[in-house]
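[Discussion] Sanity-checking designs against the backbone

I'm trying to build intuition for which residues belong where. Below is a structure token string of 388 positions. I'd appreciate it if someone posts a full sequence so I can compare it with mine line by line.
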């Protein structure tokens, strides 16, 4: 298995493309187009244009001086993905894939969404780039619980299709989107939201999210004159983490730390298995099915994780740790109070771990925490949790 490291779409034994033949053909065409356009100067120029003029990049690498003083230890820097238009990192990937879809001549974009964050990013990208119809599949149960996000996507011009099959959750929405893709591949592009799924999605999503570490590396060298001691990011499917790690993977002095919710510890406790068309470390129940998980952060509630993280974990290049919902909730409040920044509950997991880590490190060290999103979406939920 080890010699498959260099095989396309594999990260050691992880990754690959375990899908029916007709879908595989669609994904091969996507792969060829991605490989062509990612190096095309016009494509790169257009991506950079939207990143700067629409998303507001580059975003700052903010020194969290108050938090650093309170914790006592290494300097904590925050990479401010929360300041992107729409308030999180997901839009980087959505814009990248939409521009690719346009080059490929797609007239329809489809996507799946759980809590609605990826659906909103996709609908936003469709609105700004224009010329493509946007359909978002969402489990029926999720549409009921996230009525405002459904309305948000509709405001942005998308059609939201509630999926009534199975449990009416994210998995059922993914299945429906894949059926749609196979039936309509000539006109339709499937925009996947995290560094998961069959090849080429994990590679493509990493490519577009790598802008995070491309910027942060330049910024930390300007501010500190040296590389950080560690980069910390929360990991659900793993897209903000792989983007935050990418430009440091070859810098062996930099510790890469992915933070999982203790309630869905795919890497910390998972075993190798194929789910959703790719192989990764994942949590299975006694029947070998993906285990239902529950995290207070909807974006981290996924039983698997991107194949490259599975590889970075088994080769010990990156470390993966867990933080409980309770610890994340405390970090959510701490960052709000001492820095005036309300972080997403997902990002709060990374903050919680960074606070522990900073205490163990030297005052000369710097830690970069990827602040993957802002917490406005979570304020009501936190309010209710603190009341009860
Ligand atoms: C979706 C989301 C995540 C989790 O997704 P990854 O693919 O693991 O990055 C983390 N933070 C925020 C703010 C999100 O919206």
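Best answer:
Here's mine. Compare freely.
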């Amino acid at each position: 298995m080890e010699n498959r490291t260099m095989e396309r779409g594999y990260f050691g034994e992880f990754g690959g493309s375990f899908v029916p033949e007709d879908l595989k053909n669609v994904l091969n065409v996507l792969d060829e187009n991605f490989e062509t356009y990612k190096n095309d100067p016009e494509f790169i120029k257009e991506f950079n244009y939207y990143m700067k003029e629409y998303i507001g990049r580059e975003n700052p690498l903010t020194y969290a001086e108050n938090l650093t003083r309170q914790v006592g230890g290494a300097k904590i820097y925050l990479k401010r993905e929360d300041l992107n238009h729409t308030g999180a990192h997901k839009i980087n990937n959505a814009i990248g894939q939409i521009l690719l879809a346009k080059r490929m001549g797609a007239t329809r974009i489809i996507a799946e969404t759980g809590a609605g964050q990826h659906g909103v990013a996709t609908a936003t990208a469709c609105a700004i780039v224009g010329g493509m119809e946007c359909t978002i599949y969402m489990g029926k149960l999720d549409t009921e619980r996230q009525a405002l996000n459904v309305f948000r996507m509709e405001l942005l011009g998308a059609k939201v299709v509630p999926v009534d099959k199975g449990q009416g959750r994210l998995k059922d929405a993914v299945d429906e989107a894949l059926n749609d893709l196979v039936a309509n591949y000539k006109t339709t592009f499937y925009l996947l939201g995290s560094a998961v799924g069959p090849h080429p999605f994990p590679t493509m999503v990493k490519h577009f999210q790598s802008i995070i570490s491309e910027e942060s590396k330049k910024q930390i060298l300007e501010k500190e004159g040296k590389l950080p001691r560690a980069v910390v990011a929360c990991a659900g499917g793993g897209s903000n983490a792989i983007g935050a790690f990418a430009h440091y993977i070859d810098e062996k002095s930099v510790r890469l730390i992915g933070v999982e919710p203790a309630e869905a510890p795919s890497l910390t406790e998972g075993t190798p298995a194929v789910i959703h068309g790719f192989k990764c470390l994942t949590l299975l129940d006694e029947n070998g099915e993906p285990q239902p998980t529950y995290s207070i952060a909807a974006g981290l509630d996924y039983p698997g994780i991107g194949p490259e993280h599975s590889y970075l974990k088994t080769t010990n290049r990156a470390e993966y740790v867990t933080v409980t919902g309770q610890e994340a909730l405390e970090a959510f409040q701490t960052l709000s109070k001492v820095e005036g920044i309300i972080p997403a509950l997902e990002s709060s997991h990374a903050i919680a771990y960074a606070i522990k880590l900073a205490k163990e490190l030297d005052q000369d060290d710097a830690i970069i925490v990827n602040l993957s999103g802002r917490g406005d979406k979570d304020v009501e939920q936190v309010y209710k949790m603190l009341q009860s």
